[in-house]
Amino acid sequence: MIIMKDVYKTYPNGVTALNGISVDINQGEFVYIVGPSGAGKSTFVKLMYREVEPTRGQLMINNMDLSDLKEKNVPHFRREIGVIFQDFKLLSKLSVYENIAFALEVIEESPKNIRKRVMDVLDLVGLKNKARFLPDELSGGEQQRVSIARAIVNHPKIVIADEPTGNLDPETSWEIMKVFEEINARGTTILMATHSKEIVNSIKKRVIAIEDGLIVRDQHRGEYGYES
């Protein structure tokens, strides 16, 4: 599903964030990306949804070579990827339903299909009764559930989550992780960058640790391994 071969990323200011990373991630895996601040985690994640491009090396995602992906093909590629952010990134003037539906409207799905798929994902994240609410009428945990629903409404093969519990209290974080586990159980590959030692050590999954732009650990059912 994801193949990285000797990937480097150097920014225009001369900072090298990734220093020759190689890794394979299979369909259906749940992988934590951990490491100290400034280690290269965010760059690693941003490469996955083409927010940044590798300086050199090969990156294949879902049989698409991102090292050679033309700009006109980026929107099509991103339809195969669901992305979830720490700060939710919801459209404040649109309702919960409209925020999620927007992802389907841009690809010109029929109104009938949009309604069914939006209500299905709202049911999955436990917010079917709040479809008409605006984001600022929801708690932080509920807003994150909306962002998860928006990310998965296109049935992506991969979900990228960048610190998805970073702004949430511990109880809400565990609830969000239950949603991720359910999505993963349905066959979706999940890649989650996190600083949460408690989550990583309690919900055992594959752990890829990055330090100084290099993968220093890759463990099946690993542990966090850093002070958090």
From TrEMBL:
Statement: the UniProt record of this protein carries the keyword Glycoprotein: no
Pfam families: ABC_tran
InterPro entries found in the cross-reference section: AAA+_ATPase, ABC_transporter-like_ATP-bd, ABC_transporter-like_CS, ABC_transpr_LolD-like, Cell_div_FtsE, P-loop_NTPase
UniProt keywords, alphabetically: ATP-binding, Cell cycle, Cell division, Cell membrane, Membrane, Nucleotide-binding, Transport
Membrane association type: Peripheral membrane protein
Cellular component, GO annotation: plasma membrane
Subunit field text: Homodimer. Forms a membrane-associated complex with FtsX.
Function: Part of the ABC transporter FtsEX involved in cellular division.
Protein name from the UniProt record: Cell division ATP-binding protein FtsE
